[in-house]
Design goal:
CATH class of the largest domain: Alpha Beta
Strand content: 15-25%
Largest sheet: 10 strands, mixed
Number of helices: 13
CATH superfamily of the largest domain: Isopropylmalate Dehydrogenase
CATH architecture of the largest domain: 3-Layer(aba) Sandwich
Shape: globular
Structural class: alpha/beta
Radius of gyration: 20 Å
Strand order of the largest sheet: 2-1-3-12-11-4-5-10-8-9
């Protein structure tokens, strides 16, 4: 297969974890006879420093022409002053909107060898395997924003079409899994959530009668994610709720650094990135966990390139590396010597060669 991939390392630990993801991509290409054309491009804070724009036109154009986009992380204190007019996050929102990637898939699966890495009890975590489907291009993050000397306003808007398409995406995914869908809203307070609940109910009744539907208020969902996470299969929710709840859910797995994500639209092109941020406090130390990045590469192989066998091979290699003790400080615990970012990448590549 020939494929073009736009590579956006970004800021903080982004370039460090990206380097390991790219190593894995190149190894997959070499071992399976693929040709992956990787183009590194400025994005986020690094692009602001370079040209004053977090999403330069040349970067956007390359992403629009690529088969997939691989993203590291963006942001940091350097660009986060309250008075800043240009921020890295503006580039991320702009990229998502331009590519039309409205569905953010965030799988959370607890590795048996890492049950002790979480602060929750082992018996709560055993068997956890869920997927969040977060609406990504609507809601309060994209609404009108106003600010004056005495007040500030962020408008949250959703259309029927936006809700329909994300619910269909989540329901199709649930149909391939355990046929259980939880829709999360705040319909006791918010009008957008009342619309969300009405549309979700209609779509599920008309098109997905073979998938069970449960509505849950966001505060209840936050509680039950910790109390009974094993009961969940697929969860669908709006942009801000999904942003917050998926960070909470990452702690089930033991670390933000472990989890990947895929942002998808109507076609096969997607944006793939670990769910963690740029972690400026550890940038440059060589201790960042690359597993979320490498597993995002696996999602890229699966969803954009339709290389299911290669995706599974990479996921199994990550699992094997972790099981054999390749763990950065965030998941090393007291019984394992912490590995560097590079050493974890080496272990994953070694596990791939053993297969």
């Amino acid at each position: 297969m020939n494929a073009s991939i736009a590579v956006l390392p970004g800021d903080g630990i982004g370039p460090e974890v990206m380097a390991q993801g790219v190593r894995c991509l190149r190894a997959i290409a070499q071992s399976h006879g693929h040709q992956f054309d990787l183009t590194e491009l400025p994005f986020g804070g690094a692009a602001i420093d370079l040209c004053g724009n977090p999403l330069p036109e040349s970067t956007l154009q390359a992403c629009l022409e690529a088969d997939a986009v691989l993203l590291g992380a963006i942001g940091g204190p350097k660009w986060s002053a309250p008075e800043a007019k240009v921020r890295p996050e503006q580039g991320l929102l702009g990229l998502r909107k331009a590519l039309g990637v409205y569905a953010n898939l965030r799988p959370v699966k607890v590795h048996p060898a890492l049950l002790s890495s979480s602060t929750l009890k082992t018996e709560i975590l055993e068997g956890v395997d869920l997927v969040f489907v977060r609406e990504l291009t609507g809601g309060i993050y994209f609404g009108e924003k106003r600010r004056d000397a005495t007040s500030a306003t962020d408008v949250c808007t959703y259309t029927v079409e936006e809700v329909e398409r994300i619910v269909r995406t989540a329901a199709r995914l649930a149909r391939r899994r355990r046929r259980k869908l939880v829709s999360i809203d705040k319909s006791n307070v918010l009008e957008t959530s009342r619309l969300w609940r009405e549309v979700t109910t209609r779509i599920m009744k008309a098109e997905f009668q073979d998938v069970s539907l449960e509505h849950m208020l966001v505060d209840s969902a936050a509680m039950h994610l910790i109390r009974r996470p094993r009961d969940f299969d697929v969860l669908v929710t709006e942009n801000m709720f999904g942003d917050i709840l998926t960070d909470e859910a990452s702690m089930l797995a033991g670390s933000l650094g472990l989890l990947p994500s895929a942002s998808l639209g109507e076609g096969t092109r997607g944006v793939y990135e670990p769910i963690h941020g740029s972690a400026p406090d550890i940038a440059g130390r060589g201790t960042a966990n690359p597993c979320g990045m490498i597993l995002s590469v696996a999602l890229l192989l699966r969803h954009s390139l339709r290389l299911e066998g290669e995706a599974q091979m990479l996921e199994q290699a990550v699992s094997q590396a972790v099981e054999h003790g390749a763990r950065t400080p965030d998941i090393a615990g007291e019984r394992h010597q912490a590995s560097s970012t590079q050493e974890v990448g080496d272990a994953v590549l070694g596990a791939m060669r053993d297969r």
